[in-house]
Write the structure tokens for this entry.
Amino acid sequence: MGIENITSKIIADAKGEADVMAKEVQASAESIKSEAEKKAARIVDDAKAKGAVDKEKQLTSRRAVAVIDGRNIVLGYKQKIISQCFEEAEDRVAGLSDKEYMDFLCGCVKASGNTEGEIFLNKEDAPRGDELLKRLESEVSGNSFTVSAEAKNIRGGLMIRLGNTWFNGSIEAIVEEIRNDLTAEVASVLFVDQEKQDGNKK
């Protein structure tokens, strides 16, 4: 799997889970709405009992607060789901088949633009070092890469050092970069249908 495929995989996974997550959001929103209506009813009863002159003003104000609280809860829920989506992307890359994962490592090296340098893997991937070098010999002409005996504390992927310059091709770094670029797109995939439904109900 090349780096360019990680983006499409995240979007595909998001689409596959969108229906389930939308139902969860809907259930959460309905619960929030129900609770807000209960609070509003209690406010009305309280205002009537006290005979407050400004009960309508108080009711409007508290309803507005309840709506804002509800929106904040739903927003937090959406952000949590989006974070889970990217965390699952890390899991899926780390769980690739041997061939796919080796393709991924080679893709990381090519994406760095380097033809030389010291490659660092994590402890679990260290045994793949020789195979990676063999692949690079045939796929990156004129390269002079070496694999360091030092293991890096990364989940997967690799890092390359060339002098004082580092290229971070770890799974964490790649997914974080994609996250910055795709958060809005993933959110639209997950929640656009739900937002349309909410709009139709108004």
